[in-house]
Write a structure and sequence with these properties.
The protein is an alpha/beta fold. The protein folds into two domains: about 200 residues, Isopropylmalate Dehydrogenase; about 140 residues, Isopropylmalate Dehydrogenase (3-Layer(aba) Sandwich), CATH 3.40.718. It has 13 helices and twelve strands. Strands 3-4-2-1-5-12-11-6-7-10-8-9 form a twelve-stranded mixed beta sheet, with helices on both faces. Strand 1, helix 2 and strand 2 form a beta-alpha-beta unit. The relative contact order is 0.17.
Amino acid sequence: MSNTASNRTEPPLLAVTSGEPAGIGPELCVHLATRDWPVRPVVLGDVELIEERANRIAAAVTVREFLPGTPALRGVLDVLHRPLAAPALAGSLDPANAGYVLGLLERAIDGCRSGEFAGMVTAPVHKGVICEAGVPFSGHTEYLAEKTGTPRVVMMLVGGGMRVALATTHLPLAAVPAAITAELLEDTLRILQRDLVTRFGLAQPRILVAGLNPHAGEGGHMGREEIEVIAPLLARLRAQGMQLDGPLPADTLFVPHTLARGDAVLAMYHDQGLPVLKHASFGGGVNVTLGLPIVRTSVDHGTALDLAGSGRADPGSLFAALELAAQMAQAGSARA
């Protein structure tokens, strides 16, 4: 058999950035070698760091530098070596490694855009220590949007049988009403609808749209954003063929019989939608960035510095993120 024919049978590669080296990311990545996957995870990070964490948590895993063409083996973790800038101690942040953390993301982005990787999965980073190093950094989502030249992205969390996207993300509650404009909602809904088709394989997705105010405004008695902004926009998009329900009162939207009507929920703000989803799925939820030209998923938790090196960190969310990235990459490939 020719090399070309052989390569066609190789599973696609997924880049897994190991995140903040003082946090739980490196040891969570170690656990990837304990399971078989429909894709081949390639961890981006410092080989010696990840080997040290594997030893510390007594994982029965061999850590090796990734070489294209070598077979994937259960119990063996492939690491695309990127050297630390300074020694990393579990639980102890060091701004000197901020460039290392960002370099992992840049390498994964480059690999996704070139076709080397079918997608990327990100372990948690620590925003504060990157900012302390003099690099303004508000999070993975914004960084990936900037680096890929994407004007607008949408955050969606998946878990507990739900897909919940956000119209606004990390805004003070007092700033949310002014941010809910027809332009924002239209852009968000179009990105959400498009990626449900192209990344999730849903031919005609139905989106449940929450109102902003209690009882979706109660006919204008508890706020007029539904009457003046949300409902007219939804009516216009329905006329163009989109399947949209709403605006719906958020307190009854998340009950099973209502959720069963749709494929995804659009919440107006962070704490309207995510507490429900995280209650149903914490430890197994996945953060997805929609609108990017590449597949990107992430864990739904932070760096957990207090757990780093203890062996007690749960890899469930990373496993779920890898599984979802594989499904999204496969759906996108099937449409290509």
